[in-house]
Amino acid sequence: MKIRISYSALRRITFSVYILITILFCSLLIYIGKTEIQNAKLYAEHERSYVSSLLSCRNSLNQLDNSTKQMLQDPAPATCSAFSNDVISFLKTVNTLARMESERTPRTEFPASELQASTQLLFSVSETLSSDLASCRSDRQPFEEDLRQIIRTMDDLQSKLQGILKIEMDHAEIWQRQSLFFFSNLQYLLILFFVLTALFSVSASFLFGYILKKSLRDLSEGTRQISSGNLKHRFSQIQTDEIGNVMYDFNIMAQRLEQQKLALEKINRELEEKAAQLIEAHKHKDRFLANMSHELRTPLNSIIGFSELIIKKYQAPDGDQKTLVHSQRILSAAEHLLDLISDLLEVAKVDAGVMKPVFSDINLSDSINNVLMMLKPLSEQKGLSLDSDIAGKIMLKADERLMKQIFINLVNNSIKFTHNGSVCVKAFVKNKDAVVEISDTGIGISADDQKRIFKDFHRVETGLTSNYEGVGLGLTLSKRLVELHGGKINVKSEFGKGSTFTVIIPLEHELTSNKN
What is the pTM of this model? Predict the structure, then answer.
């Protein structure tokens, strides 16, 4: 059985152990530090008292030494009495020093008991000397012997006290070294702790890194499987940590992606079937329109021909005027219907890919002027000014018949929707493109209609356009003919103020096999 280690659980255990070790080590350091500091305080207090007593002994001994010198200079009862009092005072300080010394650890090399013995001897000699002086003996030999004994005892006391002072200084240095040794050991312990902590951290980092890399490799492999299209891949062994949560989310994501893929495949199949049906229906529609256009044009031509004959017959002064008016109406309606059928046939040819432009070098300026001459009577009939602003000779590769048809549709459209004012055509070259602008002062086009004006059979339905003829194919046909030349057409208009149609066609056009 393969055991999976939880990264989250291992992390919690490791940091718990680390915190526990840290707490124990810090507690140990605190305990050792408190103990040593307490011992140091007690030792320092005892040493302070002992040194204070030792200094008192030295001061008393100095006072005793002065009394001794005075007594040697003037051996009288008064000086001897002062000497005895100083001896008693010194003895008291020595007794205090001896009591403190019994409580010290370790004991000194020259114990205070020796000072006590020497001081007792000195006290005895001082008593003897006082007695000799009081009796006023003439024999000076005992008196001199007492003085020599006092001098020897004083020298011995000074020597022993000096030895104790030296030992105490050595003890102070030892205690200082011990304190430094403790703090040095404490420093080493801290360094050891930090080294162990660093080793523990590095080891834990490597362990965490290994476990994390392994989990991430599994996660990366699963991600590659899913991204390569294997949406059936699932993570079978999921850990109880953050990476496990990511694996679980990936499983859910893969499951949903698989479901969405199946749904998309089903929708794509349905769309492909619908697209095939629409393409087939579009082909049938194009064939129907093309065939019907041809079928309708033949009888319309006959109607137009017979209408023209009737009009010629009844145009004489003695002709039937009523028949003439009806014939003219029949001719006008037939010609309009023929134009509509021609536009419908042209659109069907473009959609079916049957219409192929015949590209040649043409003078766009001449083509536009011919169109304007053709439509000049129509504009004059409505009292409009038909102006042009053509920048010289503009040569480009295009189908001249289709170019004329484009501008006939656009200029005729502007004249039709303009009641007063003018229609102006501008042509110029800009950035290797031929640009033609047809501007009018007509009824204009709303912003909503501008978005749909080039769609099939779309008419601007307003109160101003309800009396105009047409089914909305002129602009559609113009746009598709412009696109056959690799160009584009756009419109700028403001309702009630007029419109401007802009045609942009490349001067050099490369006809490819797939260009419609």
Answer: 0.42
